[in-house]
Amino acid sequence: MKRFHINKKIHVGLCIGLTAISSTVFSQTVLESKLNRPRSGDNLWKQEVRFKDPGRSGKNVLWDFSALEPVVHQENKQIGSFDGVDWTKPVDISMYVKVVDETHRKVTFFDSDPGIVSALDNGAIYRYNDRGDSILIWEYETPSTRISYDRPQTWMKFPFAYGDSFSSHYNGEGTLYEQTGMISSGILAVEADAYGMMILPDKDTLENVLRVRILQTHIDERMPVGVLKEKMEIQENSLAGKTTEKEADPVKAFELTLAKATASEDKKPLYTETIRWYATGYRYPVFETIRSFTGESEKASLENSRAFFYHPEEQQNDYLEQDRENLALLETAKAEKMKRLKAGETGAISTGGIEQAIRYNVYPNPSPGDIEVEIALPEETTVEVALYSISGSLLYRSGSATYSGIYHKNVPLQKQPRGNYILQIRCGEKSYSEKITRK
Fold this sequence. Notes:
This protein is an alpha+beta fold. It has helices at residues 15-22, 33-36, 225-241, 245-248, 250-263, 312-318, 324-345; strands spanning 43-49, 58-64, 73-78, 97-102, 104-113, 116-121, 124-131, 134-141, 145-157, 165-176, 180-199, 205-224, 270-278, 287-294, 301-309, 359-363, 371-389, 394-397, 401-411, 419-427, 430-438. It has a 12-stranded antiparallel β-barrel. Strands 16, 17, 18, 19, 20 and 21 form a 6-stranded antiparallel β-sheet that branches. Strands 3-4 form a two-stranded antiparallel sheet.
């Protein structure tokens, strides 16, 4: 099967497409159980790319992913059978295994137990249960670790639209290398915090994209297996005996544990931010970023950041032929898009685009240095970017320019002291403001 590779940086100006698309009002994407729950038998390919900051939340956001850069991993690939090899003698291993550059990884969904769909992703297995309107994770397993949740992780509730949110507590126990006991507990805060337009590396655009942010606050405790068993017995007896309210309520118990961990010098809570972008007609995300932090939430330090691109065309090849409901939505969306593009080429709506809300993005925020501004301009428009102090003093102005397509501007913030600022974007008669933090 053909794999779609991102081989170099690509910059695209989509003037015609932007004109046609931006002048039309779209319905919002809503995640639904029948359209977005994981299905056994589906395969999904993801490509790791250089991390790009997700940018602002809110309405009419522009996500310009036209210049994604692939991250290449070197992996061993078997090219010959080991049958009959005499390992007591020197062996030219290059005849059987070669090192290859790999950018894609496969995610496979399969049935494991009744009512359970498992996902195999880069050596890790996640076991999902579709309970009514919720997607729960009951178990997590790698070659070294296995965690079973007595209070499962709630990763999604359906239906889920822009502005929706929920939070849930989870708790599980397991082992590391079958020798060390583990208790994993935390809180998931899930919010559909943005919607807008995404520009893809192959010059196409996705309209009405919904972004879902998942913030996981978790604490992992390690101890000898025997100590873990004793602790679980004590906990069961405590809950059965209905001791104090704080001990009987697992959420309040975790909050106490979190407060102690935050104050501790040896053990700090972990924060994992997972952001996923969903588009109409696709069961799974089209883009994903993951960032891990340690420390206090307000002063957390970044430990790791990764990003993955799930190419829409690959999703069509991988599972959409067996996904009739999503395929029908996708075909309808394509037909409507072609109709708008055709109308735009004839000039039928060539002057209406700027009347709609401008799509833009600002990142990173908070920022240790400069700020990047990206604006989708469907037609020639006068644009200007300015930076002000909280008291209203002008610190930077880009100067007025007439532009169409994707407008990029770097706003210098490196030399400014730490604190809050106001970024103002003017597009024609419209004005937008964002609060910026220099950290």
